[in-house]
Amino acid sequence: MADSANSSVVEALISLRKATKMQVTTLVQIGTLVLGTGGIWVALVNQRRQLNAQMFIEFSGRFQNILRLFPTEAWLANRNPSQPLPPPSQELTDCTLYCIQFIADAYHLHKGAYISKQIWRLWEREIQRTLTGPVFQREWVGVAAEFAHDHEFIHYIDSLMRSKRARTPIVALCDLSAGGSAPGSTGAA
Questions:
Q1: Which candidate in 45, 78, 89, 181 could, as Cys together with 135 as Cys, close a disulfide (CB 3.0–4.6 Å)?
Q2: Which value, to the nearest 10 degrees, does the dihedral of the CA atoms of residues 10, 16, 19, 24 take?
Q3: Which pLDDT score is estimated for 102?
Q4: pLDDT level of residue 40 (50, 70, 90 thresholds)
Q5: Using CA atoms, how far apart are residues 186 and 189, in angstroms rounded to an integer?
Q6: Phi-psi region of 184 (alpha: psi -120 to 50; beta: other; left: phi over 0)
């Protein structure tokens, strides 16, 4: 009888040991999965930060190139409303168009969630400061037709231009929902 009791205890201990071993194995597997998932998450966060840094550098370079093209007196007059506005010119209109296209590129990347919120807030503050200047207020009327296909972007630019400083009212560019055309355009695409 003692042998059968010892045998039962031994069997119970062996069974307990097997169960414990399976639990440890399961815990090790779960731990490996958690560590692997954490490692992938850290790698993705780092990759996103690197991509945002690369995008910031690329866009800063593009902006510097556009700034080099922009007539200095026009840029300074846009930043300081007390300076006289330069006369309208094709060069100034072209440079304004390049700037607005640059803003459109950044805007659409932001809308697609390719630009982090922190970088976008930084850029948007400067975009707003630029667009509320008198040169861009005047030139927007001439280049807005180039963006007539993008109602949301036109609304965004218009809201930024009106938001910071009180300026002379921006001419209603067009009734886009009615298929109108912007001032200065022929209505033909």
A1: 78
A2: -120
A3: 94
A4: very high
A5: 8
A6: left
- Residue pointed to by tokens 């200095």: 72
- Does the pTM of the predicted model rise above 0.85? no
Closest CA to 56 of 126, 124, 125, 119: 119
3-state secondary structure (DSSP) of residue 112: coil
Mean pLDDT of 73-102: 93
Which amino acid, 59?
Answer: F
> Taking 70 as the threshold, does the pLDDT of residue 142 lie above it?
yes
Per-residue pLDDT band at 119 (split at 50, 70, 90): confident
Amino acid at 44: L
Helix ranges (H only) for the chain are: 2-69, 72-79, 90-111, 117-131, 134-143, 151-163
* Burial class of residue 54 (count of CB atoms within 10 Å of its CB; 0-12, 13-18, 19+): exposed
Spans of all domains in the chain: 70-189
